[in-house]
Amino acid sequence: MARVVAHLGRPETPQETADRKAEASRRYRSSKTFRNLIAALLVTVAVVFVVVAGVPRGEPTPPPAPDVPALSAEIEADLGRPVLSPSLGEGWRVNQATTEGVGGTEAWTMVYVRSGESGFLRVAQGFDADENWVGQVLDGTRSTETVDIDGITWNVYRPSNPSGTGNIDYALATPAGPDYVLVYGDAAPETAALAAASVTSQIEQLREVP
């Protein structure tokens, strides 16, 4: 028996029944699609939250500073003669220490920077080097004066064109037995003198090398 529809006051025709069922199906599919969309969005937001929450915060941890005394001891054992191990005091840290070709000469080079400030200071020991090596590193700059630091006479260099020497505007150099020691950078002369004084004993030992 056909269902009587209240607002029609009579039974539905077969076509009306088919139309009603089709409309109900359309509404169901439409509501299901909307719910699926909302669910997908919620899942996406949750995934993004988890990914963001898992990303480390803050600045990356800087790599550990090179162990200058340990590295210099290794080089010293290989060469059979003293190798520099400077000490600049509190506030300075070394961010590079390696043997490298500097001005065509193999050199043990340490780069020091001051925490929280700009500027740098290099201390280099040129192996089997002479004053010509210093000129190569300092772009031909010549020394016009000397300074006595802790009993050692150092040649003073003041490059007139720091941009041509890698921002080096002050340097100290002195012979050390078979080698040459160079302290250079854009730090104040007082800081360079401090670095030079910290290797006095090693320079004296080098000067005793036959």
Automatic annotation (TrEMBL):
Residues 17-26 have a biased composition (Basic and acidic residues). The chain crosses the membrane at residues 36-55. The keyword Membrane applies. Keywords: Membrane, Transmembrane, Transmembrane helix. Pfam families: DUF4245. Residues 1-26 are annotated as: Disordered. This is DUF4245 family protein.
